[in-house]
Amino acid sequence: MPETPPPAGTGAASYEPTERTVPSRSRQRASYDKETVHSILDAAYLCHLGFVRDEAPVVLPTLFGRIGERLYVHGSTGSRPLREAGAADPGLSVCLTVTHVDGLVLARSAFHHSMNYRSVVVHGIARAVTDPQERRVALDAIVDQAVPGRSKDSRPADAKELAATAVIRLDLDEVSAKIRTGGPDDEPEDLSLPYWAGVVPVARAYGTPVPSDDLDPAVQVPGYLRAL
Amino acid sequence: MPETPPPAGTGAASYEPTERTVPSRSRQRASYDKETVHSILDAAYLCHLGFVRDEAPVVLPTLFGRIGERLYVHGSTGSRPLREAGAADPGLSVCLTVTHVDGLVLARSAFHHSMNYRSVVVHGIARAVTDPQERRVALDAIVDQAVPGRSKDSRPADAKELAATAVIRLDLDEVSAKIRTGGPDDEPEDLSLPYWAGVVPVARAYGTPVPSDDLDPAVQVPGYLRAL
After folding, report:
1. Model pTM?
2. Nearest-CA distance from A118 to chain B in Å?
3. A residues 34-93 lying closer than 8 A (beta carbon) to B
4. Where are the beta strands (DSSP E) in A43-152?
């Protein structure tokens, strides 16, 4: 029995490839599977957000949060991209990229050196979020993206803080993941060369939480931090 | 005796700030000091390269190498940004960003949550490198940026591989670093709230090198890998 593809749209299992989400090389590394994309995004909290100012590209590191098929980025209302996303109609054209390095791939030949990685690239229009409830939920999501469970264990933003914070939203629509795994792809004639070949694993490591100098010693390290 | 500032230009100790390298917020975190910028770049091998295609931003993760005041990025001659940098006159307008996350900063208030980080943002025109000697040195630098000492311990690229590789150069000229360190900046009235506050350190960790299945067991793990 042939597999029935899910219908396109909200319920689809994968994003529709577009001209700009099909890579110009290493196409076999590309994936449009939603679960794959979500898992790469959810393992991260830092993204690199690109936008265009005066016809030139700008790439800034920033925190993000995901809720379903939407990504949120926040910042000061004084920050340029957030201001521009709010002022522009329909919004600000952005590219949001998330990358995990999983390994350094050392081949016998300099040419075949590579990197094992998982990345997601999202293209789209970032729009200012004005609905108060969506803003609150988005800000919680950004805090929880880095430290799951933290938003409930902190003082929520008050009216003044909310007014000073801009939130923008980017829908997951034009999206691709790219993944490289495995060892080096050396040329057959290079296999006997006397150079070490293989992979050096790279991972993110968390250290022991360092309490603030002014923290009441009675406040214990919460479980969600030990879980990191 | 007043300090004499170094002359502007090649010998200067810092980059000249420009309209786009002065951040719109948190200016006290910005630095134009060359040593600071170099040390942040040299602790990294991955950058996020932004450019503009069809008036929209594109941000891609890629390896880079630094030689003095020049950064190099390489890729397939078939890759779009590298092709465009070669075809465009005077080159391709890019923004190259490097970010290290050093810690998650947890404040009592959701609003004051932050990240300790070191980042460098480079603006400029990327130009194709055509000089064969500069291309070779640049490719070595990219390999050595990730694994110092590795380029000398691998087979150099042959003529065919060199012909398949595009190299672009970006001069360090319009550059800034941004650094956040320290604990949370809570409001005085929040200090007695019962929430944990402090910093969770984040670092890059290398695992034990995993040799290729087809590696001659007589080839030992080289010292430059143990040094990682």
Report:
1. 0.94
2. 10
3. 46, 48-53, 55-61, 63, 75-76, 78-80, 93
4. 46-53, 56-67, 70-76, 92-106, 114-128
